[in-house]
Amino acid sequence: MLKIGVIGTGYVGLTTGIGLANFGSTVMCLDINNEKIQQLNLGALPIYEPGMDELLRDNVKAGRLTFSTDLTFGIQWAQIIFIAVGTPQAENGKADLSAVEKTAELIGKSLNGYKIVVTKSTVPVGTNEMIRAIIDSFNANEYEFDVVSNPEFLREGKAVYDFLHPDRVVIGVSHPRPLDMLKQVYRPLYLNEVPFIITDLRTSELIKYASNSFLAMKVAFINEMARLCDTVGANVQQLAIALGKDGRIGSKFLHPGPGFGGSCFPKDTAALTVFAREKGMPLGLVEETIASNSRQKEFIVHKIKGRMGAVSGRRFGILGLAFKSETDDMRESAAITIIDQLLREGAMIRAYDPRAMENAKKIWDNHQISFGRDEYDTVQDADAVVILTEWNQFRNLDIPRIKSAMRESYFFDFRNIYRRKQMEEYGLIYECIGR
Ligand code: UDX
């Protein structure tokens, strides 16, 4: 059985660790954050992710999964080391690689035999070569090692499913030596004929940024179409269905919303455009995607004001704060920009999210906005209801109850989950996007 160390227990690291244990390897998840490791050792996940609890328990019970803060021990114990530490956005928009650099240094100092070092973290082109150079410079006994780029494409909220059923596995190498062992790591996928894209380090690094930028561009595109549909009286939903039927376009990621957010699209589009500019090859489409996404959030506020007039002193019941459903993650959520703008204009906000309340309370305190106990408590005496996240439980609201709880009757559905006719029949002033 392969022994694998996974450094970093964020979304990617935890999913990788638990997923690889599930594939049959013995995995040690490593993190310098003592609190997180303690929590994991007690069987509790630091994130909300459907289906992950069970997989964690099963694999710990089977003896394939352990957690430790002793990174040196873990590195020396493992045959393969996955780097899955964060690469957050630095002030200048670039990826902050300090955690990756520190990890590479520790790996170099700890080497005690041949190891494969696999980078899961999203890193700019050239980083794996840098990792190799750092490890080498601390590798006093000159042990052999290989560096591999193996980007992860999982979505939050679907992390476990995506890890176990990927569309493809991308592996970047500078030498074929580690390939056999990596195929063994991913054996169940390999046997299931999941495509393996074997390429060089730089191409592999860029594939991840290109994927996320393309998807972000697709969302920004449909949001622009929604804005145009609104302006000229066309229907973006039917437009998206018609576009999607063309196999060359595909139907996924054509749902208009309040603007994309999350830990990947904003950060990766920013990092890629800054990097490309630095290399003298600006990426106009990706730069415009970022700008277009900001305009979408402005458009949302504009739309609210277009319907209600001034928002000062008006009460808003916001349903949904997370950047999308099935996650408690608030990072770069469109809700932050939209709520902050409404607050600046004097609106009063009461908000509710099924999972993201704790994270939301780190952004706004009780003086800035208030938090509802549930949907109905949140819209009590509100002048307007605003849906920002497409949680399933918002799809079946008791609309008459909502209507009678409200002071005025504006209902803004920015995930297009209700039908205009039905809402107007309930006496609501209904607005969505692009329909
Ligand atoms: C994304 C990529 O999908 C994943 O492959 C990568 O590994 C990490 O980044 P994630 O950030 O978890 O995953 O969320 P995703 O489901 O892609 O949604 C990103 C944002 O786009 C969300 O704010 C979502 O609401 C928005 N979106 C997505 C839309 O507004 N419309 C769509 O049709 C799809």
From TrEMBL:
Pathway: Nucleotide-sugar biosynthesis; UDP-alpha-D-glucuronate biosynthesis; UDP-alpha-D-glucuronate from UDP-alpha-D-glucose: step 1/1. It catalyses: UDP-alpha-D-glucose + 2 NAD(+) + H2O = UDP-alpha-D-glucuronate + 2 NADH + 3 H(+). Residues 317-420 form the UDP-glucose/GDP-mannose dehydrogenase C-terminal domain. Its EC number is 1.1.1.22. GO terms for molecular function: NAD binding; UDP-glucose 6-dehydrogenase activity. Signal peptide: none annotated. InterPro entries: 6-PGluconate_DH-like_C_sf, NAD(P)-bd_dom_sf, UDP-Glc/GDP-Man, UDP-Glc/GDP-Man_DH_C, UDP-Glc/GDP-Man_DH_C_sf, UDP-Glc/GDP-Man_DH_dimer, UDP-Glc/GDP-Man_DH_N, UDPglc_DH_bac. GO terms for biological process: polysaccharide biosynthetic process; UDP-glucuronate biosynthetic process. It is an enzyme of class 1 (oxidoreductase). This is UDP-glucose 6-dehydrogenase.
